[in-house]
């Protein structure tokens, strides 16, 4: 969705919110997010198709050993590696941790956006995602009965710590649930989004 900067500033001014790239405090930040959210909702209500877009692809290139460099088209890069017992150097985060970090960050962002829509200024928001994994699955091994061990993580849990002055626990709990229900990565995990595999041989 492309929004003209002049239109954005004008709409925010109508709501009494100065458009500033760096809000000076949490209240200003929350108010500006609310304004931006209202504007975007206005745009999408008038033109629903403008909300559909291709997500930026992530490109991962092997860098020797078990090191991989994931790149964004804007030049940003994230390095991953495996623990020493799996052939790595342990000096970078693992892909599994990056997945959990993405899950937690995506959910946190969605809660922040939900709070802005409700006019709630958050004082605290911290999310922690944990899970359990069986290394035998990663190595293609079977269990004692001869069945392949699944490589996917299990017992995934999302813990949310949230606070806002003057807002009841019940409303904050509902706010967190509402935000997570609109969060792309948690939704993708909950509903096991399928993917198409394409293999090119050089």
Please tag this protein with its features.
alpha+beta; 5 strands; single chain; three-stranded antiparallel β-sheet; 202 residues; two-stranded antiparallel sheet; disordered N terminus; 39% helix; globular
Structural overview:
- With 202 residues, the chain is of the alpha+beta class.
- The chain is 39% helix and 15% strand.
- The protein is built from six helices and five strands, in the order ααβββαβαβαα.
- A three-stranded antiparallel β-sheet has the order 1-2-3, with no helix packed on it.
- α2 (26-46) crosses α3 and α3 (95-118) packs across α5 (169-181).
- The relative contact order is 0.10.
Number of helices, counting only DSSP H or I runs of 4 residues or more: 6
By DSSP, the count of extended strands is 5
Question: Roughly what is the average pLDDT, rounded to an integer?
Answer: 86
| Rg measurement, Å | 21 Å
Structural class: alpha+beta
* Major beta sheet summary: 3 strands, antiparallel
* pLDDT < 50 stretches: 1-5, 17-24
**Helix proportion range:** 25-40%
Order of helices and strands: HHEEEHEHEHH
Residue share in β-strands: 15-25%
> Strand order within the widest sheet?
1-2-3
User: What is the CA–CA distance across the termini?
Assistant: 37 Å
| Assembly form of the protein | single chain
The best one-word shape is: globular
């Amino acid at each position: 969705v492309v929004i003209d900067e002049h239109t954005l500033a004008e709409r925010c001014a109508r709501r009494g919110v100065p458009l500033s790239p760096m809000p000076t405090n949490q209240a200003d930040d929350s108010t500006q997010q609310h304004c931006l959210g209202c504007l975007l909702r206005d745009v999408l209500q008038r033109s629903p198709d403008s909300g559909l877009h291709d997500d930026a692809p992530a490109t991962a290139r092997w860098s020797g050993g078990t090191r991989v460099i994931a790149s964004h088209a804007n030049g940003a890069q994230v390095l991953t590696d495996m623990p020493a017992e799996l052939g790595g150097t342990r000096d970078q985060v693992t892909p599994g941790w990056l997945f959990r970090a993405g899950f937690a960050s995506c959910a946190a962002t969605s809660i922040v956006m939900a709070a802005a829509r409700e006019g709630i200024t958050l004082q605290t928001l911290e999310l922690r995602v944990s899970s359990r994994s069986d290394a035998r699955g990663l190595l293609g091994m079977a269990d004692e009965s001869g069945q392949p061990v699944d490589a996917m993580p299990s017992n995934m849990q999302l813990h949310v710590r949230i606070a806002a002055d003057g807002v009841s626990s019940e409303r904050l709990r509902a706010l967190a649930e509402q935000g997570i229900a609109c969060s792309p990565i948690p939704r993708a995990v909950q509903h096991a989004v399928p993917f198409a595999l394409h293999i090119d041989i050089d």
